[in-house]
Structure formats: C-alpha cells, structure tokens
Amino acid sequence: MYCRRILSGLILLISLQASSESRIVDNLSKAIRYQTISHQNLNAIDYGAFLNFHQFLETTYPRVHSQLKKKIIADYSLVYIWQGNNRALPPVLFDSHYDVVPIEPGTEVDWEYAPFAGIVADGYLWGRGALDDKASVISTLEAMEALLAEGYAPERTMVFSFGHDEEIGGRDGAANIAAYLKNQGLNFEYVVGEGGHGCPWTSNVARKPTGNDCSGRKKLCNANA
Ligand SMILES: [Zn+2]
Q1: Segment holding 56, helix H or strand E
Q2: Which of the listed CATH numbers 3.90.950.20, 3.40.50.1820, 3.40.630.10, 3.20.20.450 matches domain 2-204?
C-alpha cells in the first residue's frame, strides 16, 4: 500500500544514512519473537507477552520513552504524543498494531520457518507479524528514535498509537484510544494506518474521514488485516 511504501522508504532512507539496516532488521526480528497473540477467547491471551513487548520497546527506543508523552490505554495499547512547535496546526495520527493472529493448531510443522523465530533467510525476514503489523510499529519507532537523535522538532504535533487487539476487533484498544484522543481535544488533520473498511470510531478522531483507499487520509483501524 502507498502508506506502507512511504514507511518502507523512510526506514530505508534511515538505514542508508545511519548504516543501521542490520540493527533495524534485528529489532524487527526481536519484536516478532514476542508472541503477542490475540484470541477471540480473551482467557486464552498471554498478556505477559504483551507486557514483555512493552519492556522491549522501552529498552530499544530510549529517546522515544524519555522525550515523548506516553499513555497506556486499556492496559496494553500504547499512545505516544510528540508535541509540535506550532499548536495552531492540527495534529496527525500514525496508527498501527502489535498483536497478531494465532497459528492454526497442528500446522506448526508446515511453516517454512518457525512463525515466532524471526528468522532472516533468502533475503527476507520471516515470521508472524513481519508485515501485519509489527513492521509498521517498528519502522515508526525507528523513525521516531532516529529523528529524536538528530534533534528534530516537529512543527505539527504527531501522535502514534499502537493497538493491542486489532486482530479481534480493537474494541478495547482502538475504541479506547479514540476516546482518549477525543478527550484530549485532539482533532486530526489526517490519520495514517493500515486502511480497511468500516470502523465505527473513525469519526471520533479524523477531521476529514474518507474512503478505504490509501490516499493520505486514513481510517483508524483495519477490520480485516
Ligand atoms: Zn493488521
């Protein structure tokens, strides 16, 4: 998708500039190893893995965690607010999620590479969440950390949300994130995310909600990813 290509291009640019491509790949590989699996049966969810993933993010992205405002939503979703210099400009929201869908029981042996090993082979990084959607989470955080290291100060406030239950509808994560952002009085110029179809809480956060294309103004959640 267009937005993902932007993020991919951004992460590639950072990689070239800082010669840090292997480190970024390594961080995404590590992220995949956290089994942040959503289940329709909430009792089957290992929330310890989600909290361990939080700890991994804190350790890996120290500038983000020391310089941006962080808010934990519904115990496991994360919101970071990077205050811009020009408060007259409406903020923008970058949304992604770090939960993944389960492995079909009995298919473990069918995987070319173990789904939670984060293996790099054949020129690819393999694993559950490599595309959907930990690549977005990690590339976003890598960009944030690199920009903070450069001393970058945005004109426009940027908000980053990382949901924990998108794969089962986002009713704890995205819904409460939207409620929190609305309560903060944030009225976004646009929202960048995975895209997708109808989402009941989209109108709570976007000034100009549009269709399902990836044209720059995006919906908050993805109902089918
Ligand atoms: Zn997704």
Answers
A1: helix 47-60
A2: 3.40.630.10
